[in-house]
Amino acid sequence: MENFEELKGLLAVPKDIVLTTHRNPDGDAVGSMLGMYHYLNQHGHTVRMIAPSEYPEFLAWLPDADQILIYDLEPERGREWIERADLLFALDYNDLDRVDKMGEVISEVDARKVLVDHHLLPGAFPDYSLWDVDASSTCELVFDFIALMGDKRRINHRIGDCLFTGILTDTGSFKYSTSPKLFRIVAELLEMGVNDQQLQDLIFNSMDEKGLRLLGHCLYNRMEILEEYHTGIITLTKEDYETYNIQRGDTEGIVNFLLKLKNVKLAAFIHEQPTITKLSLRSKGDFSVQEIARDHFKGGGHKNASGGASFIGLNATVKKFKSLLPEYKDRLAKA
Ligand code: 5GP
Ligand code: MN
Prior knowledge:
alpha/beta; inorganic pyrophosphatase (n-terminal core); Diaminopimelate Epimerase, Chain A, domain 1; 2 domains; six-stranded parallel β-sheet; six-stranded mixed β-sheet; 12 helices; binds guanosine-5'-monophosphate; binds manganese (II) ion
């Protein structure tokens, strides 16, 4: 990390700090923010957390999750916090368009900005960056940050639970973007008292009946396989959202089931929300979904996991996605 000593110097004196993460925060977003929160709190800083929109219910058990301000619900207070801050951390996002209206406020203020992230193509806004696309998760990088600060011994049970959560969710329980370094960190977290079995249950074995039936519906009625293009698509309509009473977080992970098919290398989950149609893209091996998300759906992310949106409705979006496939046919066949 460039200029790390300068940042460490700033953190040597109690500061007013705001931690932020991306819209529709996932396990890594919330885990990295809370892990950093519990760490910085030990140093006597005043630390506040803001997420642009609400986090899913399955993360509500994380220690002090209820302290996170939701910018959509309290924009005035959020703005006040950001304007008052000496230091602002951007966790698990690479550019200000990932935090909507909050991004405009962040770009205007004088606070020094620290990026901790693992998404491709970071923007130019940060003053300090701990950025690594090869990291499994931002939580892995928060661990690195604490280690760089020389404070590994300060990682307690609470910090460990938060960091382990983001690692588990961003790697799909150690299925994607793992590395020897990650497993070493995980071993250290277990030695520090993290209960991995308990966290697996809290995160992955806590569905309600409705959620499991929704998964069944997606796989049985809403899945299309395009053998020729090694591609699988699952769609959900606005009506499905009503019928299954789908809430934030209920559709998390559905896209990954498509990758269970041997022949599928590209997976798309396309779902209709009140004003936009969201796409979640996943891939296996060397085939990158990042360009598809960036070039055609105003999005981005990682090589094997990206997302984007469209404003033309569900059917037209599915049609557009399918129309792109011939362009990628050769690459998909080789991947
Ligand atoms: P998911 O499909 O789980 O929503 O997102 C997968 C990855 O793509 C995440 O790393 C997320 O940050 C990124 N991503 C999802 N939606 C968008 C988007 O609209 N814009 C950008 N730039 N990245 C996105
Ligand atoms: Mn992440």
